[in-house]
Amino acid sequence: MALDRSPLGAFLRSRRDGLSPARAGVVTFPGPRRVPGLRKEELALIAGLSPDHYSRIEQGRQRNVTDDVVEALCRALQLDTLEAAHLRHLAAPSTKRRAAASDPFPRIDPGMARLMVTLDHVPTLLLGRRSEILASNGLLREVLGWEATSGTSFIRWLFRDPAARDRITNWADFAAAAIGSIRYEAGRRPEDQDLIQLINELRENDEDAERWWNDQRVSFRTSLEKHVRHDVAGSLSFNIESVISPQDPDQRLVVYTVEAGSHTAHMLPVLATWATVPAQTSVLNAD
Questions:
Q1: N or C: the chain end with fewer CB closer than 10 Å?
Q2: What is the pLDDT of residues 206-265, one digit of tens each?
Q3: What is the residue extent of each domain of the chain?
């Protein structure tokens, strides 16, 4: 099966459109401008490529893109570290791709399970690469007002359940980052049919998901603030941090950290008494 190069072209166009000639440090070509950022010819010049060579890459007609060309485009487009990594994934030849079709539900890393038990005093959940929930603790479920059972999709809940938008007061910031993160995963695993199906479902059923997908931004397990409206505890504020499993990089522990002495820190022990299932039981049974 031929490798679909359209994601590579879409990403390059979006970054080219967002980079003005002045910021790129080039003298503009004469004539009317029909693009908001760099023209193809201008980007090719900066990257040291022929206009025809760059056009073939952006139009998906260049089967293989060498590492040297990718690095030149990263520099020319002034990509940050994450964007550059994403471009490398998109440009990787088919021989470097790993098939990632449907696979069995992963076995939870025992070390991550023990870490969840240790962090039982704050909300935590363990996610797989497609945002599927591998395990969660009772405090997380109490904070979000959602069962978060093993095997369900966190990102589906985020976009498909209206309660998520009501519960998370800065939902747009959090949801946009989730789309950027799943885009990054799609770049790493373009042959993952389950992931592609999930992305298509989100785009078809949610205007925000479609808009954020089309802006081509990427994120990767970014630290974020999350503000939650709890029916009884009131406004809760968390900083979301991620811990990657050293044994299985596709598993990440998401930890809701709090400021010492804050209202949220004072309320968490109270909320823990309301959690219906202890975190230890949830994690150990999720294996």
A1: N
A2: 999 999 999 999 987 667 899 999 999 999 999 999 988 888 888 999 999 999 999 999
A3: 6-96, 110-286
Residue % of the chain over a pLDDT of 70: 89
Three-state SS at 275 = coil
How far is it, in rounded angstroms, from Cα 15 to Cα 22? 15
CB-based burial, 144-175: b 16+ in 10 Å, e otherwise: bbbebebeebbbbbbbeeeebeebbbebeebb
Which pair of structure tokens corresponds to residue 283?
């994690």
* pLDDT above 90 for 94: no
Q: What is the CATH number of domain 6-96?
A: 1.10.260.40
Record the pTM: 0.85
Is 53 strand, coil or helix?
helix
- Residues ≥6 apart with Cβ < 8 Å to 109: 245, 247, 248, 251
DSSP H helices, the chain, are: 6-17, 21-24, 40-47, 51-58, 67-76, 81-91, 110-118, 138-144, 154-160, 162-167, 171-188, 193-205, 207-214, 263-274, 279-286
Using the predicted structure, report yes or no on whether residue 7 has a pLDDT greater than 50: yes
pLDDT tens-digit profile of 116-130? 999 999 999 999 989
Instruction: Give the helix, strand, coil percentages of the chain, each rounded to 5.
Output: 50, 10, 40
Q: Is the CB of residue 168 less than 8 Å from the CB of residue 174?
A: yes
DSSP helix/strand/coil, 223 = coil
